[in-house]
Amino acid sequence: MIAELGHFALILSFCFAILLAFVPITGAWIGDRLWMRLSRPLAGAQFLMAIVAFAALTASFLRDDFSVRYVAGHSNSLLPWYYKFSAVWGGHEGSLLLWALILTGWTAAVAKFSKQLPLEMVARVLGVMGMISIGFMLFILMTSNPFLRYLPNSPQDGADLNPLLQDFGLIVHPPMLYMGYVGFSVAFAFAVAALMGGRLDAAWARWSRPWTTVAWAFLTLGIALGSWWAYYELGWGGWWFWDPVENASFMPWLAGTALIHSLAATEKRGVFKSWTVLLAIFAFSLSLLGTFLVRSGILTSVHAFAADPERGRFVLMMLGVVIGGSLLLYALRAPVVKSRIGFSETSREVFLLVNNIILVVAMLTVLIGTLAPLVAEWMDKEISVGAPYFNLMFSLLVPLLVIVMGVGMYSHWKDTKAAQLLGPVPMFLVISAVTSVVIPWMYGEIHLMAVIGVFIAVWLFAATLRDAWLKSASSQGRMRGWLRTSRSYKGMVLGHLGLAVTIVGATMVSQYTVERDVRLAPGQSVELSGFTFRFDEETQRRGPNFIGDRATVSILDSDGDVLHVLHPEKRRYQVSGNIMTEAGIDPGLFRDLYVSLGESLEDESWTMRVQYKPFVRWLWLGGVFMAWGGFLAVADRRYRIKLKRKLSTAEAMDSSDAQAQPRGDADALGGRQA
Amino acid sequence: MNPKRKQRLIIVSFLVIGVSATVGLIMTALSNNVNHFYNPTEVVQGAAPIDKSIRVGGMVVDGSVNRDGKSLAVAFTVTDYNNNVNVKYTGILPDLFREGQGIVATGKLDAQGVFQAEEVLAKHDEKYMPPQVQRALDKAQDAAPAQTY
Amino acid sequence: MKRLFLFVPLLAFVAVVILFNQNMDNDPSKLELARKDQPVPTFKLGELYNPGRELTPADLKGEPMLLNVWATWCPSCRVEHPYLLKLAKEYNVPIIGLNYKDDRDAAKKWLETLQDPYRFVIFDQEGRLGLDLGVYGAPETYVIDAAGVIRYRHVGVVNEKVWRETLAPMLRNLKMANANAVEEPGS
């Protein structure tokens, strides 16, 4: 009964989506305020029904209702309750339902926090989101319904959740990632609504900015969590594989990073409007593309869900309508009038433009590398694009980006004196050059890539910190001064420091990881980077739904004292027959020690991979900083003040919008040419 | 030339140079780092280049896996049921590496026709056949349909 | 003139969609069957319940039939199982099971609990026959004519739609062809 209730709620939610997609937009078209006002309650109703549907599926999982096909395919009575809960999004159907839930959630959030927006804009934005909703819910209902049952004879027990997914990281990773992917739909909806209304101005940029930043922060967290999960759960210590599915999440991130920077220029100066709109379309389109790549089975990947051509074709159609339609709208309506806002070659505008170009090139690099096997397959060749391609491209693009960042931080809008830009450069150069030699030297070998990586990271640290130092100068003391800086400034500082931290992590772990595959019998040991790994014993143990070979490996320092005892494990999951390698990790801020079990050999010995991974935690720590910076920026007072003022009349709002527009930006409607 | 024209010319030429440099860079990087896939028949017929990074896939022949007694070196044979290629690898094999299973190995072919693997991949799911391997087998079957095993 | 540039993203996107669409046609269920219109490859395998009974391609001759590849580890096989039962019981369709890379006891238990739609079940523990057939995974269903020649492969679950639109017409045609062939010498 519960599953049927969920199915019914999903259909209702779909009906509300249809109404939401057509009524308010038509209202905006014909100028009917009542129809436009319907958008908010419809968005709420849509969300409510999606919650009911999701709750129903969750309940079916928790109650072990194996007559529901999806539950039978992804759960098992032996599974602990929290994995039953996360198994809801452990498969194709359920993760789509989560997508829909989050999409309707974002829609409801826009409905709630949009009191300061003109009604017409609200109607259009929510209408566009309703259209996206229609597509997704139709997809679920037609090709991927999670509520279908086995009747009459239902299985006694389920086929179990893929053991790779039985893990804390997988409880939180997909929701975070989807929050990011789907969050870009808000920026997308704002862009499309602005194109529809022909109102592409600074106010539009300011409205979509906080939404974009939040979505970006979630996506950052999602990617960091995914990388962390791959590191400890796949068992071999890799943290990024340039796998198509990883690339699918990285491309919207790159486009989104470009977008939050160009939105700043559009909001503050009214420049790059067409470009910003295009980026907003890109960020969400790439999220959809990511979904398509994962769902269609068109690319083979460790992450890929079961290939189903029917589903792939549906997503492709949806992709065509959503992306093609928005790009067509863009081509027809984006402003081409030359902006009358002038700026010099050394202005902040130019630096942000360069930042955008580099990020977009990086995004295209990933896109080309991901799609190249498809092009080759078309020509009847089989190729795979290896990590070296991506690594080479990023080792060129990232240093370029960071060097420009360090200088650009000191630029002003319109124009900057060369002295002000280049003044601190010698200091940064010296600090970076010294550290970039000293740190690799401490690690024994001086690799060129390590020097470059440390150089740019320190460059970014130095530039960001000096800027923060200058900005926090105050007659009442520095602490006071720092507290007085705006939250969005603090967020920016944190975000940029986060990038530097991630660069340190990526550089050090790729250059100075020490890794050895060894063969050890109980009692034998191996030395690595000053630590001794001693294989003490191997025992069998039974988990709730698996049998494990559990090794005990002691780590000794040079004095022979035991620092830590690790238990790497080889698990065989009984129901699915899958084998999993559970690594034993001794984590630390400056290094991880990582042991994974290979296979058992005849004479009681085991093959093992032992690794020393310096600074690996910094990778994810930097991601957390970046996301935190994003959230902090959104908590800025200027957004909150507007919320408090939400009771003011629409007229007052309109005039405040007009004031907020930069002087000289008079061509708010100038783009309407066609 | 008036200054405005001049500025525009500079911007356009920068754009052209930048775009062509980027495209050139991406294409070079791509062509240097692409791994082509070959099946054992193609390797035996000499279609695969020597000493260049490639991928070879097929089924691991039953009884062919030979582990060195002391080190992690291992040798095995992959087949598409028409031709065999000997593979050598040092290190830990993936969890689902078995005799009779489909695998894909990345590495280089040496002058003796032995494939020196740097990486051996088996899929995460034990029942799943890598599509590349399946296609390689299909191709080989097309080439010699009358053969029975 | 400037507006033309704005069409560049759209055109690039159209190119990507065309590319995807091309590759979708390569999807496994539509992939050319290597063994199409060829006899079932030779094999000698035991029966599931009766390991002593030796099955060969000769057992797959005589009338058009379905050869269903299944296993207990395959969740989709559970999905199609009730439908196979219906085909066998209500329409009296001859279905032969090919138990693929499976465990004998588990497979027997599965058929006991879920009922058995198969005339007999070829037990292919090593997946030899599956490999020769070019099986991608379970479930797959092959249409075999009276002469033991493979006519069609369906990848994925057999359901009402697949049966009505593809398998049923195909079996009907093969049956008629077979009937004609049998009748001809007599007439």
Structural account:
The complex is a heterotrimer of chains A (674), B (149) and C (187). By secondary structure, chain A is α+β, with helices and mostly antiparallel strands. Helix content of chain A is 63%, strand content 11%. In chain A, the strands form 2 sheets. In chain A, strands 3, 4, 5, 6, 7 and 8 form a 6-stranded antiparallel beta sheet that branches. In chain A, a hairpin with a 4-residue loop joins strand 9 and strand 10. With 149 residues, chain B is α+β, with helices and mostly antiparallel strands. Chain B has 2 domains: 34 residues; 108 residues, Nucleic acid-binding proteins (OB fold (Dihydrolipoamide Acetyltransferase, E2P)). Helix content of chain B is 32%, strand content 30%. In chain B, strand 1, helix 2 and strand 2 form a beta-alpha-beta unit. Chain C contains 6 helices and 7 strands, in the order ααβββαβαβαββα. Helix content of chain C is 44%, strand content 17%. Chain C has a 5-stranded mixed beta sheet. A two-stranded antiparallel ribbon of chain C has the order 1-2. In chain C, strand 6 and strand 7 form a beta hairpin. Chain C has one domain: Glutaredoxin (3-Layer(aba) Sandwich), CATH 3.40.30. The N and C termini of chain C lie far apart (78 Å). The radius of gyration of chain C is 21 Å and the shape is elongated. The chains are: A alpha+beta (674), B alpha+beta (149), C alpha/beta (187). Chains A and C meet through helix 4, helix 11, helix 12 and helix 13 of A and helix 1, helix 2 and helix 3 of C.
**Number of helical runs of chain C?**
6
Major sheet size, sense and barrel closure of chain A: 6 strands, antiparallel
In whole angstroms, the N-to-C terminal distance of chain A is 55 Å
Spatial shape of chain C: elongated
Backbone structural class of chain C: alpha/beta
Computed over alpha carbons, the radius of gyration of chain C is 21 Å
Principal-axis shape of chain A equals globular
Number of domains of chain C: 1
Low-confidence stretches of chain A: 301-307, 643-674
Q: Please report the total strand number of chain A as a whole number.
A: 11
Helix tally of chain A equals 22
Rg calculated over all Cα atoms of chain A = 27 Å
Low-confidence stretches of chain C: 27-32
Give the termini distance of chain C in whole angstroms.
78 Å
Counting DSSP E segments of at least 2 residues, the number of strands of chain C comes to 7
Largest interface: A-C, 45 and 30 residues
Q: Could you name the CATH class of chain C? A: Alpha Beta
H/E element order of chain C: HHEEEHEHEHEEH
CATH topology of chain C: Glutaredoxin
**What is the total domain count of chain A?**
2
